[in-house]
Amino acid sequence: MEKRPLGTSDVQITPILMGTWQAGKRGWVGIEDADTIKTIRAAFEAGITTIDTAEVYGDGYSEQIVAVALSDVRDKVEYATKVFANHLKYDLVIEACDRSLKNLKTDYIDLYQIHWPSGSFNSEIVPIEDTMSALNHLKEQGKIRAIGVSNFSRSQLESAAKYGRIDSLQPPYSLFWRQVEQDAMPYCVENNISIIAYSSLAQGLLTGKFARDHKFDPKDNRSQNKLFQGENMERAQQALEKLRPIAQRHNCTLAQLALAWLIAQPQTNAIVGARRPEQATANAQAASVQFSAAELQEIDAIGRIVTDPLGNNPLMWDWNS
Q1: 8 A C-beta contact, residue 188 and residue 169
Q2: 211/231 Cα distance (integer angstroms)
Q3: In this structure, are strands 4-5 and 12-13 parallel, antiparallel, or unpaired?
Q4: Residue 245, CB half-sphere, CA atoms under 13 Å: how many?
Q5: Which helix (H) or strand (E) holds 255?
Q6: Complete domains list, the chain, with CATH
Q7: In this structure, are residues 100 and 55 in contact, taking their beta carbons and an 8 Å threshold?
Q8: Which are the contacts of 34, defined by CB distance < 8 A and separation ≥ 6?
Q9: The pLDDT of residue 320
Q10: Is 23 in contact with 65 (CB distance < 8 Å)?
């Protein structure tokens, strides 16, 4: 898989990234460590060398599982992890990074990201210059190679960029969830900031495997995902029916179609999780699916069946935060 530059840094990433939220187990059901380790390894063997995790995924457990899966090939992979909203004071950022380094069994992190803006989830408000000062210090020390932000609006991104180089934005972004296109994407394109989309398959909805009446376990975070509810779910099913003939034409799955469309958007790369090795391998194959300009427009229009009625709230879940 051909790598792409991460912003203006010297880090190169794969356009498809392995997502490991599920490896932390919290917020997911039916996750087994042995399966997760095999799946992460399968992603690597299929050409996905960039792995995204976070300290908050199972309080570092996801990071530890990533290390089990990939420590022996550390020099061939790129680790992206994140500091949570409750650790954004200068000293807490430094401590969080050191914990992540220990969990990942490494002496450097390729991309270190602010997971949520200060104040999220009732966290204490911390001036962005304090957080950025810590991140810049970590970069000078060589503990991190590039700085990114996640779930930031354009205005928050602009504020952070006053205090240091931001090389990536990680927003929720998929064919069925596209608020970033109106907000931060133009700024990212102008400033050569990579977009690293999460929930790039709309938490599995774009695979086509969930029926209209599907009910998630209440412990599964998707039980609160707006896209799986009511009219949104109905519109999604209509869109999926229109996408199926395009996928068949290219001899690819709906998931591969959605990922291929996404990584064809400006500056955009796609994080995708997987529970089983064959899913990770299939995700990697999406990088070789090519659409014509007309097909990309056709897919774009079908996606708008779902996205146009959604409004501008960037949060995909009905969380009380």
Answers
A1: yes
A2: 13
A3: antiparallel
A4: 7
A5: helix 254-263
A6: 4-204+253-290 (3.20.20.100)
A7: yes
A8: none
A9: 59
A10: yes
* Encoded tokens for 204: 């599995």
pLDDT score, position 215: 86
* Mean pLDDT of successive 10-residue stretches along the chain, which has 321 residues: 97 98 81 94 98 96 97 98 98 98 98 98 97 98 98 97 98 96 97 97 94 86 89 95 98 98 98 95 98 98 95 77 42
Residue 314 to residues 149, 178, 263, Cα–Cα distance (Å): 15, 9, 20
Q: Say how far apart CA 177 and CA 111 lie, in whole Å.
A: 24
Counts of helices then strands in the chain (DSSP H, E): 10, 10
- Gap between the Cα atoms of 23 and 26, Å rounded: 8
Residue 169's DSSP bridge partners are 149, 195
Secondary structure class of 236 (helix, strand, coil): helix
Catalytic residue ranges: 57
What's 87's DSSP letter?
Answer: G
What's 125's DSSP letter? P
Q: What's the pLDDT score for residue 321?
A: 42
The token pair at 45 is 């063997």
Please identify which residue in the block is written with the tokens 């970033």. 180
pLDDT at 49: 98
- From residue 214, alpha-carbon distances to 28, 211, 222, 241, 254 in Å are 16, 5, 11, 17, 18
- Residue 217 CB-density burial (10 A; 0-12 exposed, 13-18 middle, 19+ buried): exposed
CB 85 within 8 A of CB 92: no
Which residues neighbour 102 within 8 Å (Cβ) at sequence distance 6 or greater? none
Q: Please tell me the predicted confidence (pLDDT) of residue 217.
A: 86
Distance of CA 145 to the CA centre of its chain: 18
> Hey, what amino acid is at 290?
Q
